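Per-record layout

source: Acetobacter senegalensis
name: Integrase family protein
length: 209
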Amino acid sequence: MPPETGQRAIPAGAPGGMQLFDRDGSRKYLTVVERARFLRAAEQAPREARTLCMTLAWSGCRLSEALALTADRVDLAGGVLVFATLKKRQDGIYRAVPVPPSLLEALDLVHGIREAQRRRGRGAGVRLWPWSRMTGWRAVHAVMVAAGLSGPAASPKGLRHAFGVAAVSSGIPLNMVQKWLGHAQLSTTAIYADAVGAEEQDIARKMWG
């Protein structure tokens, strides 16, 4: 996917670290408009694929973290999803990410969250998507294709980066974005502040009203 007009076709981030542009200068994250197209296309996908796509887009979690999500970690009252941060070196590291009520309602409707939580164990061990990583990736890819999206940004990782860029663009403090994304270092999260410069058109539209 070629860089859009006004965007910097250069890598953002520290050398050897996480990058938001590939070697050809193509974005590795979806813009606000592209993410909206993806979510509209997800509405037409099979129910389980739709909720997976919504979860990735609205929580910024990794695909592996979404696929590991269990019913007991959907906090309907608190309005958060609780993810095991799988890239940390030790087990038992969790983070709570606030998500829109529409996502929580969809998860309950499709996956029977309330029913599962009324059972013994409150849904512990009941995975929402008992899929392999490849099955999950293919479900997301199919929605990307339906939305007319391609290139390095059209991926689960592209949704995660889109979440980070959107959060920083909205004025969310970097330390909060770090917590939501489960980054070990704030310097990793800080690359999204660099990407905001490439989203100047979106920021300007807010000023234009």
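summary: The chain has one domain: 32-208. Residues 1-16 have pLDDT under 50 and may be disordered.
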